[in-house]
Amino acid sequence: MMETPSAWTFLTNHARVLLVIARDPQARLRDIAATIGITERAAQGIVTDLEDAGYLQRTRIGRRNNYSIDPRRHFRHPTEADVPVQALLDMFTHRDLRDE
To answer: 51 φ, ψ to 5°?
Structure first.
């Protein structure tokens, strides 16, 4: 009997949304959702979570939102609480690992 691989991933949707925004601070919610494969409503909830926790700041420019990330904020889990999210951003936005 063949085993079906588990569907878990290393990054949460919150981390994925943060990375999409780091790559494109003017990304629309529908584009964020499509990029990571979630609903627009889920993307909105995650952006709100990140904003409420101080990781993001949303500024309205015309009809679009512009997001800024506070890279000095630390991870929330106690085992990574001494690591700023800048480490995650550096790992996934400053170089494309698929090119290696």
So the answer is: -70, -45
Residue 76 CB partners (closer than 8 Å, separation 6+):
53
Q: What angle do CA 31, 11, 44 make, to 5 degrees?
A: 35
Rounded CA-CA distance 11/87 in Å is 14
User: Is the CB of residue 55 less than 8 Å from the CB of residue 73?
Assistant: yes
pLDDT mean over 28-39: 97
Instruction: Write the CB contacts of 63 (distance below 8 Å, at least 6 apart in sequence).
Output: none
pLDDT band at 100 (very low <50, low <70, confident <90, very high): very low
pLDDT interval class at 5 (50, 70, 90): confident
Instruction: Decide: helix, strand or coil at residue 59.
Output: strand
**pTM attached to this predicted model:** 0.85
